[in-house]
Design goal:
The chain is mainly alpha-helical and 227 residues long. 60% of the residues lie in helices and 6% in strands. Strand 1 and strand 2 form a beta hairpin. The two termini are 30 Å apart.
Amino acid sequence: MTREEEKYFEKLEEESRDNPLIKVQAAADYLVGTILKAVKTPQGINGNLFCKMMSVYTGIAVADTAKKLSEQNLITGDLKAKGMPRTRLDTEAGIFWIGDDINSLLFGHQYSVWHLVMTGVVMKKGPSAVPNMQEIIEHNARIIGDPSVTLWESMYSPYSDFEDAKHSFYVLKEKLAPYKFVENEYYQVFAMALMMVILQVEAAFPKEMDCVKMAMELVVFDAHMDV
């Protein structure tokens, strides 16, 4: 790292001391720029791929954070978490995980994926653009562990490239190391980046395709997969 880069991160750390989302936003900008290079073609940006990739990475980020926090709680003996702990679910399609620690990261507070994404969606498109959260939760409960499930308007199997996506996620996470996030902040970066990508590409989707709903369905599904 150059001295200029060190100064940048030192300044960012200071600026975000009272508002951690400043650092999350900066890292999300970096993340979007990095992934953009993979989806840019001579014809322009492949918005469909861009949004889908970011949705997958965000779901994996939630799964990874829930796993790390669960492991930390076991090591420290902190078993006071409310609700259902992260619990293994063996299915025909492999291992999934369920529990309120996952649900909390997805929906449970102001730094949850849902809140971070929908804040941007509402600001740009209004409340009517927010999909029905309960319908997405119930839909995921019906399809979890189904080896034949398809998402993204039935055009994508969430199992097809999950292992490759996991590898890419951990490479991206490593690139965020200079930001010095604690473990439960990484998923926020990916959620913020997803919000930015959705707002950038959703206008290119056909009207009958709800980009926001498609993205959140994929996030929720992947958040319960094994990482």
